[in-house]
Amino acid sequence: MIVVLNLDTKLIGRKVVFLREVDSTNEYAKRIAPHEEEGTVVIAERQHSGKGRRGRYWASPEGGLWMSVILKPGRCESLTLLVFAAALAVTDTLEEFGIKGRIKWPNDVLVNGKKICGILTEGRIGDYVVVGVGLNVNNDVSNGLSRIATSMKTLKGSEISVLHVFRSLLRNFERWYNLYLSGKHEEVLRATKDRSAVLGREVRITDDVEIVGRAVDIGEDGALIVETPSGVRRVLYGDVSLRFV
Ligand code: ATP
Ligand code: BTN
User: Fold this and answer.
1) Is 0.85 surpassed by the pTM of this model?
2) 213-227: b (≥16 Cβ within 10 Å) or e
3) Which of 11, 78, 116, 175 is surrounded by the most beta carbons within 10 Å?
4) Whole-number Å distance between alpha carbons of 106 and 29
5) How far does the centroid of ligand 2 lie from the alpha carbon of residue 65, in Å?
6) pLDDT tens, 64-106?
7) For the chain, the helix, strand and coil percentages under 3-state DSSP, each to the nearest 5
8) Which domains does the chain show, CATH number per domain?
């Protein structure tokens, strides 16, 4: 089958690897990354071992957008800001389809409190970064996930062209990635704060220790600043887990 992509990007997607089924586009992208040029995108119709952070299961049946972008930003100052750039691209794309998404620090996009997108960034420092984006477009989120997840189809009431969403996402990601590369971190941060689902809210963060307090800001390094009864705490992106309280 020939798919005409008509992408309007220069870097992101200059090569697209399209797969019917894969274990995980992030795993596939990591396997090829050492020999690939920057900008190659891996996209699959289904993932049978789609994963979230901490190796959690990510449901990836047909109808969703499951993709990973291979980037080679060189000495990567802040990986967290790169995750924000991807989340901003997702919210821009949702906006183009009339959907208002909010960024749940550090790596999710929510609509009306439900998860529509997750981002998983992996890589080898100084070598490559793989940015994996899972966006629920037309895939079924009714079984098991309905309490916590939503999809573009659920929100719009009809099927949406995954190709249109893909094209828009690459275009928006390229814009944010270029801003990030040119050191316009302030712009990335400001937009992330503007679209945050978290700032001003009471949160519980679990890592080795638990922090409960009000999320008040996001620092230059992407850390979440939380006011707690025992003082201000900076929470760095990592394997931390954030819940609203
Ligand atoms: P935390 O703050 O603890 O990290 P999270 O929701 O961000 O919470 P992740 O590990 O980042 O957790 O994401 C994986 C979670 O996403 C899984 O636990 C699962 O509940 C949920 N999930 C799995 N597949 C999907 C999907 N297609 N759409 C939305 N959510 C999903
Ligand atoms: C999360 O919320 O924890 C992140 C979920 C990331 C899912 C995407 S789907 C494309 C890429 N391949 C994977 O196996 N995971 C990411």
Assistant:
1) yes
2) bebebbeeebbbbbe
3) 116
4) 22
5) 10
6) 999 999 999 987 678 899 999 999 999 999 999 999 999 999 9
7) 25, 30, 40
8) 16-194 (3.30.930.10), 202-244 (2.30.30.100)
